[in-house]
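Prompt: Have a read of the protein record below and flag anything odd:
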Amino acid sequence: MKKKRYKKIRKFIFETNSSSTHSICIAKGQRLMLTIPESLHFEFGNFGWEADRLSTVHEKASYLYTAMVLHEKQAEFLDAVHFLRGLGISISYDLPFYDTTEGLQVPLNSGHIDHYYDLRFFVKDMCGDFKKIKRFLFSPLSYILTGNDNSDTDVDIKESYPHEVYYKGN
């Protein structure tokens, strides 16, 4: 008797060799509780296809900073830093270094997000929207789910409170 073969169907994304998926949940609402830290360090991170829930302020800050630098939004990031300092938060951040041999600016230490280009709408919406940055970073209800479509890990956001969702396929 022949063994049945099952075909994996990817949800809402195009087929490629990679299968990382990231979903970002940003809580919203008038009575949203925010936990504002005294200090915050933005550093570069590596976010691939491993299954994880990023919910600490540090993890979310690292993801946001990595995405903004990869999208060449350093000026917009500095605007956000100015806003956060206005909230009384001591801010520090890693500086990106670039390889400029052959006339190209290739980031050497700016972290990694699989298929970061798919985050263009998230980055665009975050640039200049300081209230959204504040809700994303400081609400314990805001988080990022990372995973892949080769496993049973679910990266669909299923929350009952008001929120916005950004989805990055592979």
